[in-house]
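Contributing: when you submit paired examples, paste them exactly as shown. First protein:
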Amino acid sequence: MNELASKTTTVGLVVGDYAILAADKRATAGAAVYHKAIRKIHRISDHSAVTISGLVADAQFLVENARFIARRYELQARKPIETRSLAEYLSLLLSIYLRIYPYLVQLLLGGYDSNGPSLYYIDLYGTLTREKYMATGSGSPIAFGVLESSYSDNMTLEEAKNLAVKAVLSAISRDGFSGEGVDVVVIGKDGMREETFQLRKTLL
């Protein structure tokens, strides 16, 4: 199972009052397609979610740890954890284990808190950066090109969702490790909404 989803395409962007995450649905191990309905966007709290690319077992460990930290903080502080604090925790966890047993993942953490929406990129070294838009995985060079050419701070939510889907679909059309469809999660002050676009029904 550790090999599953080692190749993928995930994207994230922030516009207005929303953070948007999107990912394809194909799980691979080497050249084999193991599953066609994998979810690569995982809810951490009511106002945060993370995309995963890399080894599944490693990603699952990090997701469960992030959920635990978010829940514990909320119980102790009686308020939701800030997205930045959650990103810093994941970054610290990755950097601590780097020289012992590195977690082979790339993460995009999107969330909404008292400071508004935000998107953070975290790599296997624990490097943490805040981004307006980003892509990870084997299809990321293609997806990032689409984001870079069309992203605008003034986009509407619908335009941003369409751009996220288009970026993943562009990668799917050229990257054999990405495929099947696109999951989208929109995070705002009212919580989280999820949609799925099946490849056979969606056109670039």
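Second protein:
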Amino acid sequence: MSLFNRKTQTQSTANGNNFLTELALATIHDGVIITNRSGVIQFINPAAVIMLDCGSAENALGLDYGLLLKLESKEGRELLENENPLIQAMRTNQQIENQAVCLVAGPSAKRIPVAISLVIANNNESNRIITFRNITKELAEESEQAEFISTASHEMRTPVASIEGYLSLALNPQTATIDERARKYLTSAHSASQHLGRLFRNLIDVTKLDDGRLRPNFEPVEMVGTVKQMADNFVMAAQNAKLNFQFGSNDPATVNNSGRLEQVVYGYVDVNFLQEIMNNLIENAIKYTPAGGSIYVNVLGDGDRALINVTDTGIGISSDDIQHVFQKFYRADNSDTRTIGGTGLGLYLVKQRAEAMGGHVWAESAFGEGSTFYVSLPRISGDEYEKRMIAVNNAKMVPQTPVNNNNQGGKQ
């Protein structure tokens, strides 16, 4: 009898816990969906029903999650399957946390910016717990902050440029005569003003994308040739720094006799964003690699991704710092980096630009042993490349409709 009572009490406790769990999920403002390992919805809370505009929980239960959770990029662009973080996480059984995307809600097609997360439950069913949080208010606050930073940066660029200009004149022997002691002070001030100018330029670049004023302009490209052309711009800078600079893998097995990569990789990217990414990564590699070192830039196709890496034999990054290097304003603080100028925005800009194109970035390094920075971007097939090129060329051939400036009111 006591055993029966103990079992009944255990079952009662479990039922009570389930009730409390469902009550908690029913009262939170975040949308919650639980699916089985095949992606079939088994539970949906009221907040998710409202955000997805699906009418009721009964309408959602038993459906594939993909029929309800339709996602776009945070810029409002349709996501390919290999760009969709939720699809990729469901397929690979990996967790995601607070990925910023746009949710397209049901019949109304209302677009809601959300931070979406996925957790794999540690149970026999391996349930997928999907949560999504409306971040409209957060984005509005971030936009206000970005607008302030952008406006302040614009206002401060002019006086800083004037200071830099006057210091340049003071240091020019043709316009001013100064002793060596004064020249030393003015040189330090000139260097500081240049650093401040770079900071303001980077702040403006970053905030333009943060607040939505700058959106990626996608076009189909052949990635290997495009990245090589960008990398070639740094050959002279690397030579001046006494560095060995090589495009293509440092593994001879992956290149032909001419040193060119055999693989053809197509992507759909914003070329200007890609240029900014390559500029920052290669400039960093040159900056943090002592004379006599080497830099390798490479592009490979990795399944449905185009993978770019910039590898150097420089001073490297400690394990404590490497997890923070893509954060805004973060700079590693050690005796080797203190003497090297930087704004702390370059790698944040790399991450920001890559994610705007549906990609992601990461770094591998060991202090004193060099670093490799990776940029993974969506890859398209040769057929898809040809189709998109035809569309681009056709768009160029369509004549632009002239604007009738005399018809201001829409009626004659």
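If you have annotations for the second protein, write them as plain sentences, like these:
DSSP finds 13 helices and 13 strands in the chain.
The longest helix spans residues 136-171.
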